[in-house]
Design a protein that fits this description.
Length: 211
């Protein structure tokens, strides 16, 4: 048996295949929920309520989903260009740190201008960081899979140093939490960049090794 790519895929399959994947995943998860002795309908209802059931739930969902969506989009574009960029995680962390640094005292802008500025500055910082493995590939023929993957860990150590060092909140009771700084602009609470230091705090919420 040999798998071959289709020459063309009609619109029905383009829409139906992801839907079938979601339905199959939900069916499997429902079986596991039944096995645990709970009601799948109640579980799915609680899931929807926790994600979309209130303004707070919706803003929290967007706060956590937006970075993942943009990081996934960046990886998809690179893969379509036959560039195996495995460093999206590290590039996202670099962008989050740049948005934190610029958005908490370095730049003073109106709210309507501050939000897109932070998005663009974070994207630019992540893109510039990608120049390192690009240079290694074009000049030294280094495999971008290896270089982008290993640079993730370099960035993790830098973020670890920031949240346990210069950016650590002295009132955080030992948690890796970026300290509050003067906010030069007032931004919409539903935007993930409404508190720029939150981006680096979200990054620092992973179980980092002790310094």
């Amino acid at each position: 048996m040999r798998l071959e790519p289709r020459d063309s895929v009609n619109l029905g399959w383009q829409i139906g295949a992801p839907l079938l994947a979601v339905i199959a995943s939900m069916a499997i998860c429902s079986g596991l929920i039944l096995w645990a002795g709970a009601s799948p309908l109640s579980a799915w209802g609680l899931l929807l309520k926790g994600a979309l059931g209130s303004t707070f739930a919706l803003t929290e969902t967007l706060t956590r989903a937006t970075p993942l969506i943009f990081t996934g989009l960046a990886a998809a574009v690179a893969f379509r260009a036959k560039l195996w960029n495995i460093g999206g995680e590290g590039q996202f962390y670099v962008g989050a740190c740049m948005a934190t640094w610029l958005g908490t005292g370095m730049i003073t802008l109106p709210a309507w201008l501050m939000i897109p500025f932070l998005f663009l500055s974070g994207a630019l910082a992540g893109g510039l960081f990608l120049l390192i493995p690009t240079w290694l590939k074009t000049r030294l023929k280094a495999d971008e899979v290896v270089t982008t993957l290993l640079l993730n860990f370099v960035v993790l150590l830098v973020v670890n140093w920031l949240v346990f060092g210069p950016w650590k909140d002295p009132m955080a009771m030992g948690w890796p939490w970026a300290g509050p700084r003067p906010h030069p602009s007032s931004t919409a609470p539903c935007c993930p960049c409404s508190c720029p230091s939150r981006a680096c705090t979200w990054v620092s919420s992973w179980p980092w090794p002790a310094p």
